């Protein structure tokens, strides 16, 4: 049985594993499961990103300002920040939270536009793996959709 002190002292590697599994669960729900159940869609759109955001906040607030030579004024300062494992984990969790939140927005917006799930899936996978690339693909596709819609009107 874990004591309270043991339960609260998770290693960065353990937190990395938990955060990555939570994000993966969100992406599986978003890509493969039906979105007609609002409670199920709530999990990847809000619940998991919220939990990851809280983890990020805890990591960032407790470690971000404690790195000697770290900061945001130069690339060298940013590199110094990410040399600390906990700050690197915070950065990773930041990606997981934001990419999943954007993926949820893309999925809902794509559904609203009537984009087939087979077309959405590679865009969502691109967002999962490469974040801004998936967003750029979706925005380009959405722009094309609106241009086509206006041309047909």
Beta-strand proportion: under 5%
What is the overall pLDDT average? 91
What is the β-strand count?
Answer: 0
Which secondary-structure class do the elements indicate? mainly alpha
Low-confidence stretches: none
**SSE pattern, N- to C-terminal:** HHHHHHH
What is the makeup of the main sheet?
A: none
Given the C-alpha coordinates, what overall shape results? globular
Radius of gyration, CA atoms, in whole angstroms: 19 Å
**What fraction, in percent, of the residue positions are helical?**
over 70%
The number of helices is 7
Kindly, what is the distance between the CA atoms of the first and last residues, rounded to a whole number of angstroms?
A: 66 Å
Outline the structure in words.
The chain is mainly alpha-helical and 153 residues long. Helix 2 packs antiparallel against helix 3, helix 2 packs parallel to helix 5 and helix 3 runs antiparallel to helix 5.
Question: What does the secondary structure layout of this molecule look like, with pairings?
Answer:
Layout: H1 4-8, H2 12-32, H3 38-63, H4 75-81, H5 85-113, H6 117-130, H7 132-152
Question: Which features characterize this protein?
Answer:
mainly alpha; 7 helices; about 150 residues
